[in-house]
Structures are given as structure tokens and as C-alpha cells.
Design a protein that fits this description.
By secondary structure, the protein is mainly α. Helices cover about 75% and strands about 0% of the residues.
């Protein structure tokens, strides 16, 4: 019976673990799988649970003390596990060969990671069982046995969660993270307004001079220039404090709509979701760049220097508003809210 177990181990290793080691391998899978009375995410959840259950049973029959007594049961469970891996991989083309533009790339990237994690845990399991077969005197600690099973459990749990939450919740998670980052920026602004100061310019001339060479004659002028710069900076950042609050409001409102299942009608294209995912991340990056440059400003502060960054930021926001308008075109209340936000933010 050990030969049968070895055969199943070799099959799992060669047909699955070694054949699919990176995302491009998974994307190249072809199958004729068709679903009737179900959908991709439902089947993915089922298969995650089935794979986990088989891994649990394999872990039980692989107890070191009774390993050789359980070879028949182990052979059966490995065969079932191999079949469930096959069905899992056969489902993937329904996601990757997406002619109807249903799945966003950020979701598929998460799917790649979970499936590869499952195969990685399966590979470790194969190695562990292989070693036990080749050395009947081998003392195998229970912790070692549970390590590979734990890897498979973790992969199956994360795969189930991915399917359970779906791409809308993943997008919502990304937007919530962006809201948190924007809130951090607002806190930095509040701290700066409470204690305004010029940024460090790391002037090398300061390192070359000495105290006895400085007569202090320009200190009054410098202080005056610094104070004037701080006043301009304060006016600028207070104006942008309001703008950034508006940006956070836009993002948080969108995140709330996602959490309320508003967009989950199956009509929103995956490419649109990806566009929103990328845009909201780019908005936060531009906000961060704008304020980072601001905090580094010295007495030569000039608002004009920030116009290129502001232009990029506003172009991103225009794109987001355009997409949200289209998504909410059948909801008069949400459409009105977006219109009011647009007019208020871009009124200046």
C-alpha cells in the first residue's frame, strides 16, 4: 500500500505543485468547466472547504504512532485531495479567461496568491509524507506534521475569505485604507497649524561658516522673511486642509456605498473597478506628495511651485467623479450628492 501512497504523492507533486509555481502558470490553465445553477465564487468557497477538510483528514491519519497502520486511509484521502486540487485549478479559467470583463485585476492578483499558497502547502505536505515513507524508523514530531497541514488550512481559509468578500469588499478595503491615510495627513496638518515651522533645507553653506564669521546683522531680516513665509504657508495649508477633508468625504462615501452592497448588481465591469482601485490609491499618493513637499518648504515658499502636483491630483479626482456619476446614474439621491461635492470642491 505504500506504493499507492507514493503514487498519489508523486501525482500531486508533479501535476500540481511543480507545474504551477507562479501566477503565469495558473493563467495558462485551460478547461471546459461550465457552471449550472451556481457561480464562480460559490464554487471557490466550496472547494476551499473541501480542500481544507481533506487536509485535516490527512493530518489525522498521518499520526506518527499509527502512520503505517493508516496507509489505506491515507491513500484514499490523498486521492480525494488530488481530485479536489484538480477541480480547484479547473475553476480558474472562469476567472482568468474573462471575456465579459467581470473580474478586476486586483482581485485576480489576490486569487493568484491564495492558490499558490495552497499549492505551496501541498508541496510541503508531499515532502513530509515522502520522508515518512522512506524511513520507517523516522521519529516525526507532531509539530512537523501539523506545520504543512497548517499551511494548507491557512491557504484554504484565506481563499474562502477572498471568495466570501469578493472584489467589491476588496475595493472597499482599499478605499478604507486610503481614508485612514488621508486622516493621517489631516492630523499632520493640524499639528503644523498649531506649531508652524519652516522645513529643513539642509543648506551646506551653514556647515562651512563659523560662529565668529557671523555678525548677526541679517538676523532681523531673516526673521521677517521667515514670518512672512509662515503666514503664506499657513493660508495655503488651511485652504488645502478643507480640500483634503472634501477628498476624504468623497472616498468615505464611496466606501460606505460599497459596504452597503449598493454596486453589487453584477453590471459593473472589472476594468472599472480596477480603475477606481488605482485612482483612489493615486489620489492618496498625490495628497501625500503635496503635503510632504509643503512640510519641507523654507522661507522661499511659493504656492506656484505646487501647481503641477495639484493639477495631477485634480485630474485624478475628475476621473473618479466621472466614474461615480456613471455608477450612480440611476440613483437620484447619490447623483445629487456627487454633483454637490463636485461643485463645492472645484468651485474655486
Amino acid at each position: 500500500m505504500s506504493e499507492e501512497v507514493q503514487k498519489h504523492i508523486d501525482t500531486i507533486r508533479s501535476q500540481f505543485c511543480e507545474s504551477y509555481q507562479q501566477a503565469s502558470d495558473l493563467h495558462g490553465i485551460t478547461s471546459e468547466t461550465q457552471l449550472q445553477g451556481s457561480d464562480e465564487l460559490t464554487e471557490l468557497k466550496k472547494l476551499a472547504q473541501i480542500n481544507r477538510a481533506h487536509a485535516t483528514k490527512i493530518g489525522i491519519v498521518c499520526q506518527p504512532q499509527r502512520f503505517y497502520e493508516n496507509l489505506n486511509a491515507l491513500s484514499k484521502e490523498l486521492h480525494e485531495f488530488s481530485s479536489s486540487l484538480f477541480y480547484t485549478l479547473s475553476l480558474l479559467p472562469l476567472f482568468y479567461h474573462d471575456e465579459r470583463d467581470r473580474w478586476a485585476p486586483f482581485f485576480l492578483k489576490g486569487l493568484d496568491s491564495k492558490i499558490l499558497g495552497l499549492l505551496s502547502g501541498s508541496s510541503v505536505l508531499c515532502n513530509d509524507i515522502d520522508a515518512m515513507l522512506k524511513d520507517d524508523q523516522r521519529e516525526k514530531e507532531d509539530a512537523d506534521r501539523l506545520r504543512s497541514i497548517g499551511m494548507i488550512w491557512a491557504a484554504c481559509d484565506s481563499l474562502y475569505e477572498l471568495a466570501q468578500r469578493g472584489q467589491f469588499h476588496l475595493l472597499g478595503d482599499g478605499v478604507h485604507q486610503s481614508c485612514a491615510l488621508v486622516q493621517d495627513v489631516l492630523q499632520d496638518i493640524e499639528q503644523w497649524i498649531a506649531n508652524p515651522e519652516l522645513g529643513n533645507d539642509f543648506d551646506l553653506d551653514d556647515l562651512e561658516g563659523s560662529e565668529d564669521e557671523q555678525d548677526g546683522s541679517g538676523s532681523d531680516v531673516d526673521n521677517g522673511n521667515d514670518e512672512a513665509a509662515l503666514q503664506k504657508m499657513k493660508a495655503f495649508v488651511q485652504d488645502w486642509q478643507n480640500n483634503i477633508k472634501m477628498i476624504k468625504l468623497l472616498l468615505s462615501s464611496f466606501a460606505k456605498s460599497i459596504s452597503a452592497n449598493f454596486y453589487k448588481d453584477g453590471k459593473t465591469k472589472g476594468s472599472i473597478l480596477q480603475k477606481l482601485y488605482d485612482l483612489q490609491k493615486d489620489v492618496v499618493a498625490q495628497v501625500d506628495e503635496l503635503l510632504s513637499d509643503f512640510f519641507m518648504s523654507d522661507a522661499s515658499f511659493d504656492p506656484v511651485e505646487f501647481e503641477p502636483t495639484i493639477k495631477k491630483l485634480n485630474e485624478l479626482l475628475i476621473q473618479i467623479v466621472k466614474i461615480l456619476r456613471n455608477l450612480n446614474k440611476d440613483d437620484s439621491k447619490k447623483s445629487k450628492w456627487i454633483e454637490v461635492w463636485d461643485n463645492k470642491y472645484f468651485a474655486k
